[in-house]
Specification:
The chain has four helices and seven strands. The chain is α+β, with helices and mostly antiparallel strands. Helix 1 (32-48) packs across helix 2. The two termini are 25 Å apart.
Length: 184
Amino acid sequence: MRGVDAADPAPVLRIVPQDTDVRLRPASPADDAFVANLFKIVRADVFAAAQLPPAMLDTMLDQQFRAQAASHAAQFPNALSFVITRDARPVGRLLLHVDAHHWHMVDIALISAARNQGIGTGVIAALAREARTQGVPQLRLMVLASNSGALRLYARLGFVSTDAAKSGSHIMMAKPLDGQAISQ
């Protein structure tokens, strides 16, 4: 695979959405508060049904964020972290595990105001173009089985459900980039 060496923890990738207002940049420690707040925004709806007092909900979301970050770090220690910007303002994040056989979108999320505007679609299309350029045969992701909106989006973008790593709460999906079918 050109350009991405498994021993290189920070390969150079050119993930450039066609919308010139949308860009990806490497995340830095200065983005930690944004990424934590984004997690809270995305997950608050999931936990709203618990009807917890705001302070308790905030504490629980902090704990969930730390647990997720630790899990991602353990499972994908060399994952590349990007901040998605629109007009130079952060609107989302992409956490990407890169290897020669597939690229795994560990996490992709957008703030509420940036959803349903084609930003996520553009980022995933740019990611697929760059992966193809690098000779990667497929993109992968895990999606919450109850996230019907994300499931529809990913299916529309060419991802198919696989039996690999299916769990009770999440579904593994893959998008072939080399013309080969994904085994179900």
